[in-house]
Amino acid sequence: MRFALCNEVLRHLPWASACELIAKAGYEGVEIAPFTFAESVFDLGAEERSEIRSIANAYGLEIAGLHWLLVSPEGLHVASEKPETRQRTREYLCELARFAHDLGAPVMVFGSPKQRSAEPPVTMEQAETYWLESLSPALDLCRDFGVQILLESLPAAETNVANRLADAVRLTQRMAHPSLKTIFDVKSALSETNTPDELLEFYFPEIAHVHLNDSNRRAPGYGETDFAPILQTLQTKGYSGWCSVEPFDYHPDPETLTVETLAYLKGCLG
Asked: What's this model's pTM, rounded to 2 decimal places?
């Protein structure tokens, strides 16, 4: 497996400085939240996209993926009752697919809880259908680009759609598109009845990416969870993809966690 850091952790730094720190800490990749570069990826032209990728590559980093896809621009929603909103969101997802391709990102992680939740009068069942329909054009682009969209299960406190890994897998299987898979997010897994190890055992074939974070929303090593069994299970099962560190609470500070978290994770692997 390979370790990456989600770039919003260091978004207070210039991009080159962030990449330098990530590389010096020993990560091989960086995962990008598009909103940290522009309100809309439509505002990032070919030159800007090339610069983002080339600066990362200059420090020996690969772009591990995209996440927080629909944080901005405002008003996007895959399950809105308004057809015009869903259409605008479809168009934005297609541009995100192009953005991923231009950056060399192999995956687009679809978390974005507020932009997928069922809001009355839309039911949860309708929201799921609208979500898959909204993804369809982008998925076809992704198939041509060699990019995958990954449905992320999130706890009920964050959204009312796809709260369990089983839900995300059910939706990917319902869509049956070669560019649609799911992701194992540790924080979300810790909110389920089954243990993380059990979830990995049940659903490993559908998992194409991993997010590392603790139930307290901090980075690995700053909470109660022992990540060693999780990483060792992934290793035993032959996982060779990206494990991206994605904290929401940057304790004790962004720079320190960047360095210490990777040291902790490598220690978990012995």
From this structure: 0.96
Instruction: For residue range 199-233, list pLDDT tens digits in order.
Output: 999 999 999 999 999 999 999 999 999 999 999 99
**Number of domain units in the chain:** 1
Q: Provide the mean pLDDT of the chain.
A: 97
CB-based burial label for 28 (10 Å; 0-12, 13-18, 19+): middle
Dihedral of CA atoms 187, 158, 180, 172 in degrees, nearest 10, equals 100
Taking only the tens place, the pLDDT of each residue in 9-67 is: 999 999 999 999 999 999 999 999 999 999 999 999 999 999 999 999 999 999 999 99
Q: What is the CATH number of the domain that holds 220?
A: 3.20.20.150
Domain that holds residue 138: 2-268
What is the C-alpha separation between 122 and 130, in angstroms, rounded? 10
Residue 148 has a CB neighbour count (10 Å cut-off) of 24
- Write out the two tokens for 82: 């308004």
Per DSSP, the residues of 35-94 read GGT-S-GGG--HHHHHHHHHHHHHTT-EEEEE--TTSSSTT--TT-S-HHHHHHHHHHHH
Cα–Cα distance for residue pair 247/125, rounded to 1 Å: 30
Q: What are the tokens at 135?
A: 């993804």
Q: List, in order, residues 6 or more apart from 39 with CB less than 8 Å away.
A: 72, 73
CA distances from 66 to 41, 90, 118 (A): 12, 17, 24
Q: What is the pLDDT at residue 270? A: 84
Is the confidence at residue 264, as pLDDT, over 90?
yes
